[in-house]
Amino acid sequence: MSAMEPHAETPVEEDFPSDNLPEVHIVSGIKPKEVEAVLAMAAASGRFSSDALMSAEDMAWDSAYGGGGELHAFILAKTGGPAGPVIGFLCFGPIAHWPENYELYGIAVSPEFQRLGIGTALVAEMRRRIGNGRGGRVFLETGDDEPFAGARSFYEANGFDQEHRFHKHFIPMEGGVVYRLNLDADDDPNYQ
Ligand SMILES: CC(C)(COP(=O)(O)OP(=O)(O)OC[C@H]1O[C@@H](n2cnc3c(N)ncnc32)[C@H](O)[C@@H]1OP(=O)(O)O)[C@@H](O)C(=O)NCCC(=O)NCCS
User: Fold this and answer.
1) Residue 6 located in a structural domain
2) Is pTM beyond 0.85 here?
3) How many angstroms separate the CA atoms of 64 and 154, rounded?
4) Is 136 near ligand 1, meaning CB less than 6 Å away?
5) How far is ligand 1, taken at its centre, from the CA of residue 80, in Å?
6) Is 102 among the domain residues?
7) Are 138 and 130 in contact (CB under 8 A)?
8) Is 76 in the pocket of ligand 1 (CB under 6 A)?
């Protein structure tokens, strides 16, 4: 059973590290009109495999038209207000048959808005929705080669550690690196 909080558009106040950053809103949920922008961002990043893109597409349409009962969830970053254009997204959900364990399926921020703390804000909101400090873990798989070096640095900067153990509930599909984030307040550098 998911411990995630209800599926709703929830504006979240975030402090961002740059003075030049336009107003950014972090919201939960995805609307049908936002699906194409999210999928285009994922495809343009070049960091989503065709399988990952197909499942992102399924999950995005499911979330956009679902009644809130879907297990996976989208968190969007928008600029110029909660109804503004999407400049980043994160998708996550619980791992089947493994209580308190979640998977971060994908994250991307538009290139012109990268290195401004938006990816970190998306991860912080995921943590908040799962329930910071209540225990549990978030797993993800990413590439182990040079094109994914930035993504690995990002995950490490956000408290993820490389997982070297084998977990039967989380088997990497693409042979990459598995990362694990412990949802424990003591381990979260951004937790206050
Ligand atoms: C990975 C990604 C989501 C990060 O988003 P972001 O908003 O730029 O990340 P943040 O600004 O919150 O970065 C926080 C920290 O992570 C690290 N980091 C982020 N991107 C990095 C990069 N390209 N190279 C090295 N370190 C990086 C830095 O320590 C950074 O802090 P700093 O800017 O103060 O040095 C973004 O680069 C992206 O969309 N990449 C393409 C898609 C992708 O790779 N997705 C993940 C794999 S599927």
Assistant:
1) no
2) yes
3) 28
4) no
5) 22
6) yes
7) yes
8) no
pLDDT 10s digits, 128-156: 999 866 779 999 999 999 999 999 999 99
| CATH number where 46 lies | 3.40.630.30
- Of 102, 90, 76, which is closest to residue 24 (Cα–Cα)? 76
> How far does residue 14's CA lie from ligand 1's centre (Å)?
17
pLDDT band of residue 158 (cuts 50, 70, 90) is very high
Q: Note the helical H segments in the chain.
A: 32-45, 50-65, 118-130, 149-157
Q: Whose CA is nearest to atom 38 of ligand 1?
A: 108
Of the candidates 105, 90, 131, the residue with the CA atom closest to the CA atom of residue 5:
131
Q: Which of 2-16, 100-114, 145-159, 174-188 has the lowest mean pLDDT?
A: 2-16
DSSP one-letter string for 164-180? -S-BTTB--SSS-EEEE
Contact (CB, 8 A) for 175 and 143: no
Q: Is residue 112 part of a domain?
A: yes
Domain assignment of residue 182, given as a range: 24-187
